[in-house]
TrEMBL record, chain A:
InterPro entries: CS_dom (IPR007052), CS_DYX1C1 (IPR037894), Dynein_assembly_factor_4 (IPR052004), HSP20-like_chaperone (IPR008978), TPR-like_helical_dom_sf (IPR011990), TPR_rpt (IPR019734)
Protein name: Dynein axonemal assembly factor 4
Origin species: Lonchura striata (white-rumped munia)
PANTHER family: DYNEIN ASSEMBLY FACTOR 4, AXONEMAL, DYNEIN AXONEMAL ASSEMBLY FACTOR 4
UniProt entry tagged with the keyword Amino-acid biosynthesis: no
Compartments in which it is found: Cell projection, Neuron projection; Dynein axonemal particle; Nucleus
Annotated SUPFAM superfamilies: HSP20-like chaperones, TPR-like
Gene: DYX1C1
Biological process, per Gene Ontology: determination of left/right symmetry; epithelial cilium movement involved in extracellular fluid movement; heart development; inner dynein arm assembly; nervous system development; outer dynein arm assembly
From TrEMBL, chain B:
Role according to the record: Key assembly factor specifically required for the stability of axonemal dynein heavy chains in cytoplasm.
Subcellular localization, as worded in the UniProt entry: Dynein axonemal particle
WD repeat placement: 135-148
Keyword Repeat: yes
Name this protein carries in UniProt: Dynein axonemal assembly factor 10
A GO BP annotation: apoptotic process
Domain of life from the UniProt record: Eukaryota
SUPFAM superfamilies in the cross-refs: WD40 repeat-like (SSF50978)
UniProt xrefs under Pfam families: WD40
GO cellular component labels: dynein axonemal particle
Record InterPro entries: WD40/YVTN_repeat-like_dom_sf, WD40_PAC1, WD40_repeat_dom_sf, WD40_rpt
Gene behind the chain: WDR92
Keywords: Apoptosis, Cytoplasm, Repeat, WD repeat
Length: 457, 360
């Protein structure tokens, strides 16, 4: 149950209402105050103050001042009129409830509107900032462009100048090629007058043409330099005089110089071939630095795989696909054993073992072959190897183990090492498979033999 | 890398851009003129030769010549200045020399290779260097052949792989060391990263190395001097600058390498007026201008007392991106410092001016 705060005091002016609410020691924050158009609530648990106002107020402009254990409200009336009382006195419950809810709703709407408005202003500010930066950048760019343009224009002008010089040089060359000797003098003279703004000694012209009749690029070049130089009088005269002397000086020998030059070119070389070797490489593709790591890895893996095969690759190259399969070889060996070809069977088993030395059956069968061939020691070896591979002793390899033991035992017996044969193997065989009558019988026989020898010796 | 002051850096200014209706593979300035030549392949599979003249802010087409096979590369290097014949290699392996005034019939023609001629270079002409004019061509059939225009049909030198061994495509060739009548050297770069230096005087292999990535372009800084520097560019954005003055018996030539861009570096061209400045063009359509600085001592003695070279350092002067497609060909004008033309695979040819090069 909230504690109602009722000790409020208020006074009014035509436009505003001033309400003072003592807080009885409670601390107030703006969150505790809720103000709608016609509804005012202060809730500081457990205290509660609620007022349905007499008339609507302007809640956006109204203020509340918190301090001194007191909240001081300044509420601006919507309609300037004097209120009879602060609250609606004779309002019934429903109306009050309605007003309350309305107020709450209105407040929510207002809050929403406010956030919207804030958002909009924020966006506008952002836009403005963006535009400002854009303008700045644009200005910067324009400045750089302007600099570049200036540079470009300068350079273009220089280029034009140079190009014109080139053109003139070319024009002269083409003129020389096309026209006859006497005709050449005229355009040349005109040109000279244009550029140099000087009158020339007629002798010069003739001597020049005479020289020009000799072919020599040297002369043409001098001409180009001559005519493209800036039209400064003194400079030009210097050029002409120096060029002339050069011309006259070289004139006689230029013809010969040209011929000499042609003779000086060495004869074409004698044809020869140089053989080259390219960097050796495992892969057919060309070497690329970024792929070196991948390639190394691949080669490494290949080497590993080859090692696992555990044999000399060169020998196996002659075999067919099936002959490289140990199982197939085992079957072959079995067939040969059945047919009585014990040596062939041994060969087959040998090859199979080279390909895969972890199959106990191969050794087992080879042991049988050796027994038949009376290679007793080899039989023992193979059965031993088979037994080794048949660890751990589980019911699955019972059969195989029995066989191994039996074969080894037989070998021992045939070597007349009865004690080992009997003790080790037949006992073991019996242990594995106590129900096997044949083994029992054999074991008995051997025991008798042992006893017999012991007795005799 | 030393930094160059912002205001003093050379600027690459794009002067003219010309859209073409064919793929341009090579562009060359015609020596002693403001004219340039574009070589390429039209969409219908024929070769195109276009002669343009620089006229104000645009290129004016003077001549268009069509040939039966697409043309891959060309050079003016082996002709005299009066004649200015163009030697071209085409997609079919034919080497032709054309007189541009009368281009119907070639002055010299030979079916030099079985496959496309990837690169061509000429020496002994244009008043540069001494000795016989010769042309070298490198082809996808793995051979490098040197031709003399005075001798028909048979190359004067042929560098091919040993019989029976696999061959690698030759992507680029360059002449060098032509400082007197006898000396001459050919450098060839292959697609597996091999660089081989052949000495034509002794007809032998002088040096070889492998830079681990296909070699797109090799160039000596000058053809007509004692070999000084060799730049070799490759795939995956790397290029190497070899100091060719000192050859160590086992280690070869000293080099400095730079990884400039993520993409292939298609071409390198040295400035004709300054042999320590060169421009590389890349697969991402960018151009980089580099300067090589020599070390304090160009050679030193190693532990056994043999001379070995010391490589210098490189600094990037400027870089600019002009296109989205690779710039496959680049040529400096020998007459005007800083004027260059580049052709890109976006079917445009651009004339550029690089400023402030005389201040470097």
């Amino acid at each position: 149950m909230p504690v109602w705060l009722r000790e409020h005091s208020w006074r009014q002016s035509p436009t505003a209402v001033y309400l003072s609410l003592p807080l009885r020691g409670a601390r107030a924050t703006p969150a505790n105050i809720f103000c709608g158009e016609q509804y005012l609530k202060v809730s500081i648990p457990p205290f509660l103050f609620e007022a349905v106002l007499y008339a609507p107020i302007d809640d956006t402009n109204s203020t509340a001042k918190i301090g001194n254990g007191n909240i001081f409200f300044t509420l601006y009336k919507k309609e300037p009129a004097l209120w009879d009382s602060l609250t609606l006195a004779n309002a019934d419950k429903e109306k009050l409830q309605y007003l309350r809810e309305n107020a709450v709703l209105k407040a929510q709407e207002k809050a929403k509107e406010e956030t919207e408005a804030k958002k909009i202003t924020k966006q506008e500010h952002k836009k403005y900032a963006l535009e400002a930066t854009m303008k700045l950048e644009e200005a910067e760019r324009k400045r750089i462009e302007a600099l570049k343009e200036k540079e470009r224009q300068k350079v273009a002008e220089e280029l034009e100048l140079w190009k014109n010089q080139q053109k003139d040089g070319d024009k002269y060359k083409s003129i020389q090629k096309k026209e006859e000797l006497p005709q050449e003098i005229q355009p040349l003279k005109e040109r000279k007058n244009e550029k140099m703004n000087k009158t020339l000694i007629p002798n010069e012209g003739s001597s020049k043409t005479r020289l020009k009749s000799t072919r020599g690029c040297i002369i043409e070049l001098y001409f180009v330099i001559l005519l493209s130089s800036k039209p400064e009088k003194s400079l030009a005269s210097f050029f002409i005089s120096s060029a002339l002397t050069l011309f006259i000086g070289h004139g006689s020998c230029s013809i010969f110089a040209q011929k000499l030059k042609e003779e000086q070119l060495p004869a074409p070389r004698a044809p020869a071939t140089i053989k080259v070797n390219f960097t050796p490489r495992v892969f057919p593709t060309a070497l690329r630095e970024s792929r070196v790591a991948e390639e190394e890895e691949w080669l490494h893996k290949q080497a590993e795989a080859r090692r696992i095969i555990n044999s000399d690759l060169s020998e196996l190259e002659d075999l067919k696909e099936e002959e490289k399969n140990p199982d197939w070889l085992k079957d072959k060996g079995n067939k040969m054993f059945a047919m009585g070809d014990y040596l062939g069977a041994v060969n087959a088993y040998n090859l199979a073992v080279r390909l895969n030395n972890k199959l106990p059956l191969l050794y087992l069968n080879r042991a049988a072959c050796h027994l038949k061939l009376r290679n007793l020691h080899k039989a023992i070896e193979d059965s031993s190897k088979a037994l080794e591979l048949l660890t751990p002793p589980v019911p699955d390899n019972e059969n195989a183990r029995v066989k191994a033991h039996v074969r080894r035992g037989t070998a021992f017996c045939q070597l007349e090492l009865y004690t080992e044969g009997e003790a080790l193997d037949y006992e073991a065989a019996l242990k594995i498979d106590p129900r096997n009558k044949i083994i029992e019988k054999d074991a008995e026989k051997i025991r008798h033999l042992i006893q017999g020898t012991m007795q005799s010796s | 890398m030393s930094a160059v002051l912002g205001a003093e850096r050379p600027q690459v200014v794009s002067h003219v851009q010309q859209a073409l209706s064919y793929t341009v593979f090579d562009c060359k300035w015609v020596p002693r003129s403001a004219r340039l030549l574009c070589l390429g392949s039209a969409a219908r599979g024929t070769g195109v030769l276009q002669l343009y003249e620089l006229n104000g802010a645009r290129l004016q087409l003077l001549r268009e010549i069509e040939k039966p096979k697409p043309i891959k590369c060309g050079t003016f290097g082996a002709t005299s200045l009066q004649q200015r014949y163009l030697a071209t290699g085409d997609f079919d392996g034919n080497l032709n020399i054309w007189n541009l005034e009368a281009p119907e019939i070639p002055v010299y023609s030979v079916k030099g290779h079985k496959e496309i001629i990837n690169s061509i270079d000429g020496v002994g002409g244009l008043g540069i260097g001494e000795g016989a004019p010769e042309i070298v061509t490198g082809s996808r059939d793995g051979t490098v052949k040197v031709w003399d225009p005075r001798q028909n049909d048979i190359p004067v030198a042929n560098m091919e792989s040993v019989q029976g061994e696999s061959k690698r495509d030759c992507w680029t060739v360059a002449f060098g060391n032509a400082y007197n009548l006898e000396e001459r050297v050919v450098c060839a770069g292959y697609d597996n990263g091999d660089i081989k230096l052949f000495d034509l005087k002794t007809m032998s292999l002088r040096w070889e190395t492998n830079i681990k990535n296909g070699v797109c372009s090799v160039e000596f800084d000058r053809k007509d001097i004692n070999m000084n520097k060799l730049v070799a560019t490759s795939l995956e954005g790397k290029f190497h600058v070899f100091d060719m003055r000192t050859q160590h018996p086992t280690k070869g030539f000293a080099y400095v390498s730079e990884k400039a861009q993520k993409s292939t570096i298609w071409q390198v061209r040295h400035l004709p007026q300054n042999r320590d400045i060169f421009m590389t063009s890349g697969g991402s359509g960018s151009l980089h201008l580099w300067k090589y600085e020599y070390p304090a001592q160009r050679s030193k003695k190693d532990s056994e007392g043999c001379e070995m070279g010391v490589a210098g350092s490189l600094s990037l002067l400027q870089n600019v991106t002009l296109s989205t497609q690779p710039i496959s060909s680049l040529d400096w004008s020998p007459d005007k410092t800083g004027l260059c033309v580049c052709g890109a695979y976006d079917q445009t040819v651009r004339v550029l001016i690089v400023t402030k090069l005389n201040k470097i």
